[in-house]
Amino acid sequence: MGQIQEFANELRRRAKRPFAEWHTVDLHNHSPKSFDYRGKGEDLLSRTIGRIRSAGLSVVMFTDHGELPDAGFVQQVSEGSGALILRGVELNVFVDAWGKPEAKVAKEAFFHLLLGFDPDADQPPEYWLSHIYRECKEQERQAGSQKIRGIASTLDELFRVLKDSNAILIPAHLHSAPDAFESRSVDDIYGDAEFLRHARDHFTALDVTSDKTAAFFDGKHSETGRLHKTCIRSSDAHEPETLGTRPFYAQMQEPTFVELKAALELPFRTSRSRPEEPKSWVVGLHVDGAFLKDLWWSCSPHCNALIGVKGSGKTSVLECLRYVLGIDVPLKRKDTVSQHLDAILGSSGRVRVLLKREDGARVLVQRSRSSKDFTVTFEDDRTEAFTNPESFQFPAYVLGWHEIEQAAEDISVRRLYMDTIAGREQVRTLEQKAVGLVGTIRHKHDQASERYNGFRDLYRNVADLEELRRGLQELTDADLITLKDEFERASEHREQFDTARLRLKECLDGLPERANSVLPGLERTWFKGESPLAGVSAEADSTMKNLFAGVDGSFDVVAKLLATALAQVGALSAAANERFDSFSTGYRERIATLSDEHRRLLESHQIVTEKTKALPRLRAELDQKKADVEGLLSELAGLAGEVADTLDARSTLRQSRVADFNSEVGQYGVRLAVVAGIQSIGFQELTQRYRQGAEVLSRLPSASRLHTRLKVAYEGLRRNLVAGDHVFFDHAEFGYFLDVFEEDDLKVEFDVSAGAGSFRPIDQLSAGQRCTAIFPLLLKLRAGPLVIDQPEDNLDNRHIANSIAPALLEDKRTRQIVFTSHNANLVVLNDAESITSFESTGSEGRIEKQGFLATRESAITKEVLETLDGGERALELRYKKYGRPSAHTVSP
Using CA atoms, how far apart are residues 41 and 63, in angstroms rounded to an integer? Predict the structure, then answer.
């Protein structure tokens, strides 16, 4: 046996499912005693029992024509099937067609009335049937070729006779055909005043053949005087095999006659079609902590009310449910709720909850105060730990005490409502897409920023080099580069004259001691290259070379040669200086006409020439960087546009669904609208924290969405990388803003003039008006269970009785509702399927009793009466002051 089934078994053992369930009921069938029965045979009993079981019938009533079914047969069927088997009769009642003219319907008209007798009444069914025939003028009348046995007294007399029987009275197969003789009904029953009087005052329910006819008794049709009456279906079976082919469904905790009759008298406890369980619901809860110790609580899939004095534990159960489901707590209440949980569970208490999800799967979720994880067990006994409650796929709304009005102040609460209306999965899909896109934008933005900065640096370098190259070209075109080279070579030659004279003199002075060492070093080319001093330089170079031609190694010869060479070089040096001075004067005059920039460029032209050799390669590299950056900016523009489109699609979805939803809440004076594209809390926090980034944000092009502005900015820079606005790349802080996007808000307005159209925003309403506006919204948000602590706070009883309770009666069939309350109207008028009464010793809370308030005799009645109404004495005083109403003046 798996863990989930073990938990379910323990829950059933501890809690015993003490709530109302939908039971299958068939109240018009015939037994073998009936003259027109078609299912006889030796195996009749077993076939009957088998059919009741296979059809899942909880209650079956046999109603033979004019007589009771055999008591022994009924007992055997009851024992064999385990169902409640009732003895009844299909009584012929002669009427004058309920006021129809004689020309239309003859005196012999009659209808079938189903009578079902209480098996626990003081007198047996035989007594009451005999009493009816005796007191109500038993007659036989001719109906065509057949004699019909029935009663001729008025229906008022019949009801008087049966007053103390506690019987149920149901006119049978109404409106099956317009011919009263053929249908045993009366045509246009919903327009017949006399029939409607009996229906309102005396009939327990109506057995109506057509769903179309039954709809006229929903309390909303003027044709019936807005009569709200239970309309059942029945099989009218004449053999075992057709039992349960047309049943109806009734809510009962236990299938007893008393609860059945109570269900028939309250239309919201019956259904002509099989009711569907809510798609997802809380099956049961186990809490093992400090204040709630080993508490097991079983839930109805429909409506659950928790009652008890303050401090008894009812709110604690709701907080445990919110805790184990991981439902967010409003920021203002987080500390309070956390302290409450500490008191409920202690430091290591745990909560387990069995859930039925929308996909039909059951999961067991556990959460302990000693861990932040949610431990989830699946039906295959697989167990996983999750940190995010969304992982186990169970949406629910849990609102603690006074949290309904939080919607006025907390945008996250309103957004939760809005997305439930719009469809959380669809909204989540769009948001996940947007989140994924902005993550990509953040990555590519950083990448583009780095590459753009590299592009800008290289662009400036290339631009500088190209400017230098243009300057060099201008100097070249003016022959200044050549002139500068000539000047430099002339200067070099002049310096070499001085060096040569100095070397010759040093050699001459070094003789004779160094005769063999002074000459080496003179044997080289002294005057290289062309220059304006070329003629003189050539002679000097020749002189130096001739010096070695005549040297034979002797001292005298060397000395003479050096002296001669020194004299010749000296004479040539004077001529070279004269020529240099003449050339230099002309050169400096040319240089003086240049700008400072061109003079500097001329001075470094060789270095610049070397630098600018890399220009072709750098231009190619620049083109590649430009293409890379443009490509990234194009991608970023596309991504930003996609984010904006996705967020627009989310807003459009929300607006469309909210507009449709207005039709559901409009009857409560509530009007909703979506305000698109407002700054999120994340935006506001970033603006406060990162001032430079916020400044960059303010300088982007104007648009409703950040990512639309980004798209325009990216595209603008891509079109002109050099002169375009690159402000969003200038400060790293701006990167933090890329991960957030605008949100939508749900505008909630309430008509404070009760229908006159004077709408006010929710933040301008009183606490009571806020609750009045929000509560219908909560009831209509049908995604998952709704759990509320004391929803009646700030709601007046008239509003609860006229609006909230009727809405709960409708919505609880398709959605689980759980609430705590001190308000009798809220608990009683919406007919909670499960009422749990809590008591406390001060240090420990416990479940005192749990059940369905079906009738006065229900096990939970005393707790409800004492806790919510103040007890028998308080109720009796109300009767004395208000007056005790007659049964027919109180509409169910």
Answer: 20
Encoding tokens for residue 721? 């990388």
Q: Does residue 815 contact residue 782 with C-beta atoms inside 8 Å?
A: yes
Could you report the per-residue pLDDT of 53-103, keeping only the tens digit for each? 999 999 999 999 999 999 999 999 999 999 999 999 999 988 765 555 544
Tokens of 362: 């059951």
Bridge partners, 173 (sequence order)? none
Beta bridge partners of 84: 59
**What percent of the chain is helix, strand and coil (3-state, nearest 5)?**
50, 15, 30
Confidence tier at 187 by pLDDT (50, 70, 90)? very low
CATH superfamily of 21-252: Metal-dependent hydrolases (3.20.20.140)
Give the integer Cα–Cα distance in Å for 204 and 263.
10
Whose CA is closest to 575, among 533, 616, 516? 533
Helix (H) or strand (E) holding 215: none
What letter would DSSP give residue 237?
B
Phi, psi for 356 (deg, rounded to 5): -110, 120
DSSP state for residue 892 in the 8-state scheme: -
Q: Do the Cβ atoms of 225 and 197 come closer than 8 Å?
A: no
Return the number of other C-beta atoms located less than 10 Å from residue 452's C-beta: 22
> What does the H/E/C string look like for 261-308?
HHHHHCHHHEECCCCCCCCCEEEEEEEECCCECCEEEECCCCEEEEEE
| CB of 315 closer than 8 Å to CB of 33 | no
pTM (2 d.p.):
0.76
Q: Is 744 helix (H, G, I), strand (E, B) or coil?
A: strand
With residue 3 as reference, give the H or E element that holds it. helix 3-15
Q: Which of 60, 67, 61, 59 is nearest to 34 (CA)?
A: 67
Structural tokens at position 857: 């005799």
CA distances from 63 to 136, 174, 392 (A): 19, 16, 51
Segment holding 657, helix H or strand E: helix 615-665
Contact 836, 306 (CB under 8 A): yes
Q: pLDDT tens, 274-327?
A: 998 899 999 999 999 999 999 999 999 999 999 999 999 999 999 999 999 998
Whole-number CA gyration radius for the chain: 51
Please name every residue paired with 22 in a beta bridge, in sequence order, or none if there are none: 251
* Integer Cα distance of 60 and 255 in angstroms: 10
Residue 620, Cβ neighbours under 10 Å: how many?
10
270 DSSP β-pair partners: 250
